[in-house]
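Reopening this one. Same input as before:
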Amino acid sequence: MKTSGIKTPPLISPHELLHQMTAAYPVILDARSGKNANENYATHHIQNALHIDLDNHLAEKPTNAAKGGRHPLPDLLKFATLLGRLGISPASHIIIYDDKNGANAAARCWWMLKSLGHEQVQVLDGGMQAAVMAGIPFDNTIPVPVPVAAYPAKGWNMPIASIEEVTKATVDPDTLIIDVRERYRYLGESEPIDLIAGHIPNAVNVPYLQILASDGSFLSPQQLAS
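Same output, byte for byte:
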């Protein structure tokens, strides 16, 4: 449902979500990731939230991560069909959360939906932790969505860089590569996920944790600019 002339902000506070849940119920997506994500969702999630999985829904995992990366974008038609199964149409108001303050899979899901041209999609500021603190209701009931037609996706509309473009950027002084992982991973001091530690040559490190306040919420644009 479009609001004429008013853009939906990318973030929504827990208190705003609580109001939405009592006014006009949005589609809430639980985007927690990790090997126990499905079990964690089944045990405890925001009331009426649907689970969307990083590995199986938000990525097309290759058999060899050396060819295509660890989490390349999924096939467009498969993602569009998934959205339809979840009852999501261009008119849906979608709110996404994860347990990394919204700065992990929730942010990725937001980007993917925006790239399809979806208007009303927001990330829960502060993530699951903030929802608990705000008293948002949780339960373990698995909701059953009402399927609709596959989302009318024509392509990924936001810019995407290929491996070849990134390789060229490593030797181009006019191109900036930003690594948003934690500092220790950027420095190669320890690597919990990938086979090779360190970072792409000439990348600068802007750890995503630096854009979060002490309570886990996102810093304001003014704070980020200062």
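So the earlier flakiness isn't reproducible anymore. For the record, Helices lie at 14-22, 37-43, 76-85, 105-115, 127-133, 163-169, 183-186, 221-225.
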